[in-house]
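Researcher: I'm preparing a figure for a lab meeting and need a structural model of a single chain. I don't have an experimental structure, so a prediction will have to do for now. The sequence is pasted below. Please return the structure as tokens so I can convert it later.
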Amino acid sequence: MLFEDHPDRDDKKVWLSQEETETLLDAAEDRERELAYRIGARCGLRSHEVVEVAPVHVSDTEAGPMLRVPEGKGSKFRQTPIPQDLATTIGTIDEYRDADGDVPLVDVSTRTLRRWIEDTRARLAESTGKRGWEELTMHDLRRTWATHLNDAEVDATLVMDWGGWEDIETFLDHYRGTHAPEAQRRERGKVDWL
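Model: Understood. Here is the structure written out token by token.
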């Protein structure tokens, strides 16, 4: 878990490793919470976007499964990749729900999302003994997503497009964090004297 102080607030920005992300997903108390966390951590959506995702927003494209965000920040449309297993889960949920495909999957308020993550992070801090969990917010899942894409050497302009960022400085300053430990180990391995 990596941290950085917020420049204007008392809390911290948090970036999870892949293993910590899986720990968070496993700690979700129910399927709806897990789905919300997965959409945040695997698709990079903001909280208000997470609660608007409906099955009709998942589409197969030539680039692979994509999640359409019809009204992102500033009411701007964008598409972001969605893992195949998450797209399949959403399709399965849609098949068994007695609702139209345009009904949100996580039908709660953003305030409820914040309460969910606060409850989950408190349980994780207690069960793991890692107090860093206490700093985690829903928005940190978006930060984590962007950093994992960066660590995988995905083109930054494409990540910006997927995430809905228009200017590189905002993206670099606030979302793309310090490289994950996995990326640091990989890069250190390129230098024989480290």
